[in-house]
Amino acid sequence: MEQEMNITVNQMPRIGDTAPDFEAVTTKGPVKLSEYAKDKWIVLFSHPADFTPVCTTEMSGFATRKSEFDALNTELMGLSIDSIHAHLAWVNNVRENTGVYFDFPIIADIDMNVSKLYGMLQPNESETAAVRAVFFIDPAKKIRLIMYYPLNVGRNMDEILRALYALQVSDKQGVALPLDWNKGQLAIVPPPKTLDEMQERIDGDFDEKVDFYLVKKKLNE
């Protein structure tokens, strides 16, 4: 049993891996991940089931803030182990009752293929419902960040957007970002790797300097 568990864990995608490719039926038509959203980021997220309360609030959160993801050159893609017919009925039900429209593809993973591929099925939580997973996939189709939440706790949309923006800023400007970092705050200059670089940190004029290994600067965002 222990050996089987280790094999399952080792096969789960990890940060830095190429996102496992798949083809799936979605509410926006067929999707092949490797050919989807060229030159864009993707936030792939799973929910346990359609027509459930926490999932409805989460999907509504993604939908109402979709323009913020659009501004970050990011496509949304949802998933649950439900049929395409259940997805369509749920999307329509929520729109009729709340006015919120889930205008992004939702994968109908009735055969659980994608859920298994991405480690969204975790038997100690449920064998038939995907946990609340979030995968941040960059334009090169590399997994850059993974979040897992249990079935009974909803995600934080502010944190998802903050993390996505932070990844993009770090890539673009070659910096690291400190605890609780948000747009407009100082970023960490990468620590020195040579004696010369260390001396540059010691002598340099920075916006904030604790010591040569912890130096911060303003960003042009």
Helices and strands, with pairings:
Blueprint: H1 2-11, E1 23-26, E2 29-32, E3 41-46, H2 53-64, H3 66-71, E4 74-80, H4 84-98, E5 106-108, H5 113-117, E6 132-137, E7 143-149, H6 157-173, E8 187-188, H7 195-203, E9 208-211, E10 214-217
Parallel strand pairs: 3-4, 4-5
Antiparallel strand pairs: 1-2, 3-6, 6-7, 8-10, 9-10
Characterization of the model:
With 221 residues, the protein is an alpha+beta fold. It folds into two domains: 155 residues, Glutaredoxin; 48 residues, Antioxidant, Horf6, Chain A, domain 2 (2-Layer Sandwich). It is 33% helix and 21% strand. The protein contains seven helices and ten strands. A five-stranded mixed sheet has the order 5-4-3-6-7. α4 links the parallel β4 and β5. The protein is elongated, with a radius of gyration of 20 Å. The termini are far apart. The relative contact order is 0.14.
Strand element count: 10
Rounded mean pLDDT is: 91
Approximately how much beta-strand content do the residues carry?
15-25%
At the first level of CATH, the class of the largest domain is Alpha Beta
Characterize the overall form.
elongated
Strand arrangement, largest sheet?
A: 5-4-3-6-7
Overall tally of structural domains: 2
Q: Mind telling me which CATH architecture of the largest domain this is? A: 3-Layer(aba) Sandwich
Biggest sheet architecture: 5 strands, mixed
* Span between termini: 50 Å
Derived structural class: alpha+beta
Oligomer: single chain
Number of helices: 7
Would you give the CATH topology of the largest domain?
A: Glutaredoxin
Kindly report the name of the CATH homologous superfamily of the largest domain.
Answer: Glutaredoxin
The topology string of helices and strands comes to HEEEHHEHEHEEHEHEE
**Low-confidence runs (pLDDT<50, min 5 residues)?**
1-10
